[in-house]
Every structure is written in C-alpha cells, then in structure tokens.
Amino acid sequence: MAVHAELVRTQKKAESLACGIDDAFISQLVEQFYSTVRQDDLLGPIFAKHVRNWPLHLARMKDFWASVMIESGRFSGSPMQKHIAVGGLDGAHFARWQALWDRVLTETAPSPEVAARFRAAAKRIGESLLTGIEINRGGLAAITGRGAQNA
C-alpha cells in the first residue's frame, strides 16, 4: 500500500511540474490572490481581523497549495477548524473567494490546464469547508436537501 501511495505521489508531482505547477507559480498565485483579497469589501475585513502575521499566513498558504497541487507534504494544520473559528462564514463568502481565485488564475496561470486544475481543487476544498461549517452549526440537518437545491 505504501509503495502504491508513493508511486501516485511521484506521478502527481511529475504531472504538475510538467504542466507548469511549481513553487514559483504557487508563490506568485498566493501573493497576488491575497493582495486581491485584502482589498475586497466582503473578504478583506475578515482577513484583517483574523490574520495578524501576513508573511507567516502567506508562507502557510504556499505550503498548503504546494501540498494540494504537487503533493509536497509541507503543510500540516486544520483548515476546517480555522474556518469554523472565524464564525459567520457562509456560501456568499466562499462564492466570493472562488470568484477572486478564478480572476487571479485567469491573470496568472501559465496555461488553461493549470488554471483548471487549481479551480477544481479550490472548488472541492471550498465545498468541503462550507459543508463542515454548516454541519458544525446545525448538524447533518443543516445540509439535508442542499444537494437537491444545487441540482
């Protein structure tokens, strides 16, 4: 099992690097994205309230995205708990985050394939975080029927 997992990680890393996903691109993307977020009317105040050390936050986000996209294993943490602790986050916040992410990807991605990979990962992550927040607030009943609404 461990050999297979290592093979999958190695293959994913090679595919990512081959299409232009590397640490330099991730650094540029994260820097530009959070510069945009900090200026946003909806998201900027939330980040201003909760992020005290921007260099540390940016470094953690770069490690997070490298772990997601390149399988680097550099990130460890609990994104779900951090987002739950913010309080008051809802679908509108995640939709704005995704819209800004998409805009920055359009401006910075070296290819449509790279942009599509990052968009898909961000969408999965955002949906997972929002689901976790909703369950934390209202139990499973909070998400019952949501799939039917989104269909």
How would you portray this structure in words?
- The chain has a single domain, classed as Globin-like (Orthogonal Bundle).
- Helix 2 (23-39) packs across helix 4 and helix 6 runs antiparallel to helix 7.
- With 151 residues, it is mainly α.
- Helices cover 77% and strands 0% of the residues.
- It has helices at residues 2-19, 23-39, 44-50, 54-70, 79-86, 91-108, 112-138, 146-150.
CATH superfamily: Globins
Element pattern in H and E: HHHHHHHH
**How many domain units?**
1
Supply the CATH architecture.
Orthogonal Bundle
Predict the CATH topology. Answer: Globin-like
Summarize the biggest pleated sheet.
none
Low-confidence stretches: none
* Helical/strand content category: mainly alpha
Give the percentage of residues in beta strands: under 5%
Would you tell me the overall average pLDDT? 89
Taking all Cα atoms into account, the compactness measure Rg is: 16 Å
The helix tally amounts to 8
Range of helix content? over 70%
Given this structure, which CATH class is correct? Answer: Mainly Alpha
Write a concise keyword list for the protein shown above.
mainly alpha; 151 residues; Globin-like
Concise summary:
With 151 residues, the protein is mainly α.
Question: Secondary-structure blueprint of this entry?
Answer:
Elements: H1 2-19, H2 23-39, H3 44-50, H4 54-70, H5 79-86, H6 91-108, H7 112-138, H8 146-150
Helix pairs in contact: 2-4, 2-6, 5-7, 6-7
